[in-house]
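Hi Y.,

Following your request, here is the sequence exactly as I used it, all 473 residues.
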Amino acid sequence: MKTTQPTRRDFLRASAVATLGFHILPASARGANGRIQVGAIGVDGKGYVDLMATASAGAEIVALCDVANPRNPELGRRKKSKGVGDTVLDRFSAAKFFTDYREMIATMKGVDAVLVSTPDHHHFHASMLAMRKGKHVYCQKPISHSIWEARRLAEVAAETKVQTQMGNQAHAGEPIRRGVELIRAGVLGRVTEVHAWTNRPIWPQGMTEWPAAVPVPKGLDWNLWIGPAPFRDYSPAIAPFNWRGYWDFGAGALGDMGCHIMDMPYWALGLTSPATVDSWHEGGTAIAAPHRSTITYQFPTSILGGPVKFMWYDGVIAKEGRYLNAPPEALWKNDFPTADHVFRRFDLVLVGEKGRMFFGRSRQDWVFKPESIGADFSALPKTIPRVPGGTQDGKGEDGGGPYVEWLNAIKTGTPALSNFAASGPFSETVLLGNLALRLGKRVEWDAKNLVAKGAPEAAPLIRRAYRKGWELA
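Below is the corresponding structure, written out as tokens. Let me know if you'd prefer a different format.
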């Protein structure tokens, strides 16, 4: 399906309207059935999951946008829904299809909200343009590619008063919300350290040069895929999946999993911005994230009092009978039969004055050491609202979890708990780890001014430049 490319005049007119004011679409602007009308930006991969779950949660999908036409069989696997072998376009046959989300946002009438399920380098532009048109936003994690972008998205969300949510789905699940309640109730006492890990990356990283160019597949608008990033020639080594490892487009293993795994302790401890960030890596280059890395965040205080050392480990994989780049053995070795029992079962360990808690965001059979400190936690009252369908990890395949929470926020005006006011500062913190990696030295962070002290070379990494025609502030 071919769409008409909007003119520069169309975009300037839309931008002028956005700067002069905004409006939230009233209920009367919704479909005849009263359902929230959603436009989906990115409909393959994670975009497909977000799209189907949002529809199952009760939204009406009225617009679809993807730089790759889903009808083209050369571009990948056919998507199926509930056993019906239809493509996304067939499943939502009444939805209008676009290849450029700028056109969709500027011209499509009747869209209340948008899903942003693109590669990271488009998160800011798609979310910002939508909010400035008064549209509610659900954006995949991290909500931006750069630190400055995360700050701006949180600011504009507050200005426009739209309902937002970051796609760290487990935030809506029972394990994380119960974990937050336990930590804040003092099950560990004052928490002094957090150690979080992942086996990612599961895609190539550490590349030293860009892959050789190959012809762009039929039906893929590669220029739009590049969007605001520096132009690079097409290669299947970049898209549709391996973009995460390239700094131009993704945020490596930390950007992919940090907003999931670091979430519970960051929330539970009421952390804000770290004072310093240190890093170690193996295989990182100027163009690509490393094979594995360790990030050390030092937070000056938490809501439980005292400083917190927060360590992140990626590339934690089993090799020759041991785990590479794993947390210190003193934290876990005497408590589990094998390392597999720790690194395949849990995501992190919190260390407090009373003991340790081994936590997994998709389960509730956590381990406390000593065991006695967790014996009475079931009696603690639930103080955080629960989400329908959020009983486990919040993925929402049943139409529940974060998608219900976001749609309810739009209906009621009560914000989802991973809204941009919360997930913006969290994304900033996660992305600070990548700043330390790319600088190759300690970051002393001035959070108020978004400045790495004594490191002027950090400025273009904190606030990236955009390709001509994609300028946005």
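Residues 1-29, 76-85, 392-399 have pLDDT under 50 and may be disordered.

Thanks again,
Q.
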